[in-house]
Amino acid sequence: MAELNSVELVVSARRLVTPQGVRAGVLHIGGGRILAVTDTDTAPAAVRRMDAGDAYVLPGLIDSHVHFRTPGLTHKEDWEHGSRAAAAGGVTTVLDMPNTVPPTLSPEAVREKAALIQGHSLVDHRFHIGVDPQRPELLAELDPGVATSAKIFMAGHHTAPTVVRDAAQLEKAFIAAAEGGVQLVLHAEDGELFSLLDGWWGEPDSYARYEAHRPRTGGIAAVAKVVELVRRHGARAHILHLSSAEEADLVSAARAAGLPLTFEVTGHHLSFTDADTKRLGARTRLSPAIRGQADQDRLWAALRAGLPSTLGSDHAPHTVAEKTRSVRQSPPGLPGVQELAVAVWTGMRRRWPEEDPDVAACRLARYLASGPAELFRLPGKGRLEAGADADLTLFSPDATWMLSAAQVYAKCGWSAYEGWTMTGEVLRTIRAGRVIWDRATRTFGAYDGRLLDSTAGG
Ligand code: NCD
Ligand code: ZN
User: Fold this and answer.
1) Which Gene Ontology cellular component annotation is one that this UniProt entry carries (predicted)?
2) DSSP codes, 328-392
3) Residue 398: how many other CB atoms lie within 10 Å
4) DSSP track, 283-323
5) For position 1, what pLDDT does the model report?
6) Residue at 164 is within a domain
7) In a domain, 352, yes or no
8) What percentage of the chain reaches a pLDDT higher than 90?
9) Residue 233: inside a domain
10) How many domains does the chain have?
11) Mean pLDDT of the chain
12) Range of the domain at 237
């Protein structure tokens, strides 16, 4: 433990969300790290102090699934806006996706992206490299200093054109990932099935038909393939934005049988149903599609049972102009990094009002902090404990407020949650001991978020 005389900030709280549960305590912070978690304040009088009062102090949240659109798609989103949305949503670390223009398919492309972002992000970050459909074998030699995880799109659309379609190439990716110790993250839908359906009854021309055109069958078929490839080759695979009960069951069963399979649930699959897509149209047009109430219920049940490893926003903004194109031309995706934690909190409090809020807070910390930190090996992240990075989210659990477009920090300026009455509010977000979001003044901090190196620290 570092010397207490290097303490620069003291945060006192009645509800610190630690790996051992919720407790009252005092965080002694210095040099961007938590130096000690104690019962009492032992710092010199001159040190700056912050009292979190009744707010939960969560570990800085980690969103392991964002599309911040640099390079090439910065009309949709950029790191200034995206990281402001993250900070306002309590998120201090993001993992960014490779479907940019050009796509991030090589170590050089990852390095170029990192250079573009330096000085433009409020939050710490790392990148999922994209699997090159022509060269999946690159994963076997992937430098963990560049990326430790790789994204495979098994289905695509115009914002996700780099799809590993060929079965032999897909298998090569699993072999190479196992060899290189790379964590795969997968958009697991069978694009060929969707093409088959489109060829039969034409592309969807109304949002009432959208879910039927991108059915659960596509997800189930792809997840079954992934289970088989993991069984055969042993690669670690994380299924992103899982949308149906059947997929949740398949992945959970495979995991229970000892396979290194995990899954993510998104804020939007927990918050909306196909009825919303009929009402909101393109705003909740998602890939994978938002499904019915029974599926949403099953995803919540999975969350309560501890089955997913991460929650993600899949923050994938598109402009209003793009979203108001015809049904055939409108791209899937919505902004969500700002809404994720509050939307999930709102859902938990509404669904399980009898639950001890401390249990809900620990669940949030697990899915949005320790879970992603462990899965993606983010040293110093995800836990409030001595030695960890001083990333904190001060969260007021009972505040209610209505979300309007005026509060949206994503560059696209809209949210599918507009008009929602939210429970819970992010009062303050702190990264490396410094405030990057302050709700009272609606101000942000310094754009000096770090590129996280998985090979550093412990
Ligand atoms: C994503 C996007 O726009 O980048 N869209 C989405 O609906 N989730 C890409 C994707 O995952 O398909
Ligand atoms: Zn996806």
Assistant:
1) cytoplasm
2) TTPPP-B--TTTHHHHHHHHHHHH-TTS-HHHHHHHHHIIIIIHHHHHTT-TT-S--STTSB--E
3) 11
4) GG--SSPP--HHHHHHHHHHHHTT--SEEE--B----HHHH
5) 46
6) yes
7) yes
8) 93
9) yes
10) 2
11) 96
12) 61-375
Structure tokens at 74: 């910065």
**Ion ligand 2: residue ranges with CB closer than 5 A:** 187
Amino acid at 109: A
Residue with tokens 């040293």: 379
Look up 314 and say whether it is catalytic.
yes
pLDDT in tens, 337-352: 999 999 999 999 999 9
Residues 15 and 129 both lie in one domain = no
**pLDDT for the residue numbered 2:** 47
pLDDT: which is higher, 417 or 245: 417
Chain center to CA of 447: 20
Same domain, 171 and 310: yes
Q: What residues have CB less than 8 Å from 211, skipping those under 6 apart?
A: 274, 277, 289, 290, 291, 292
Atom of ligand 1 nearest to the CA of 287: 7
The answer on 47 and 194 residing in a single domain is: no
Residue to mutate, 314, 315, 330, 337, ligand 1, most ligand atoms under 8 Å from C-beta: 314
Segment holding 237, helix H or strand E: strand 236-239
Name the CA dihedral angle for 131, 137, 143, 148, rounded to a multiple of 10 degrees.
40
pTM for the full predicted model: 0.97
Q: Are residues 31 and 126 in the same domain?
A: no
Q: How far is the CA of 282 from the centre of ligand 1 (A)?
A: 13
What's the CATH code of the domain at 166?
3.20.20.140
* Ligand 1 atom closest to the CA of 317, numbered from 1: 3
pLDDT in tens, 57-111: 999 999 999 999 999 999 999 999 999 999 999 999 999 999 999 999 999 999 9
Same-domain check for residues 65 and 31:
no
Take atom 2 of ligand 1 and give the residue whose Cα is closest.
316
Considering the domain architecture, whether residues 184 and 248 belong to the same structural domain is answered as yes
Spatial separation of the C-alpha atoms in residues 384 and 38, rounded to whole Å: 12
Output the pLDDT for position 456.
58
pLDDT for the residue 405: 98
DSSP3 helix / strand / coil % (the chain, rounded to 5): 35, 25, 40
How much distance in Å is there from the Cα of 77 to the middle of ligand 1?
13
| pLDDT 10s digits, 318-334 | 999 999 999 989 999 99
Q: Give, in order, the Cα–Cα distances in Å from 81 to each of 95, 99, 211.
A: 15, 18, 30
Residue 203 and residue 127 share a domain: yes
Query: Could you tell me how many residues make up the chain?
Result: 458
The tens digit of pLDDT for each residue in 154-165 reads: 999 889 999 999
Domain assignment present for residue 408? The answer is no
Residue nearest to atom 10 of ligand 1 (CA): 287
Together in a domain, 22 and 125: no
DSSP secondary structure letter of residue 128: P
pLDDT of residue 208 exceeding 90 = no
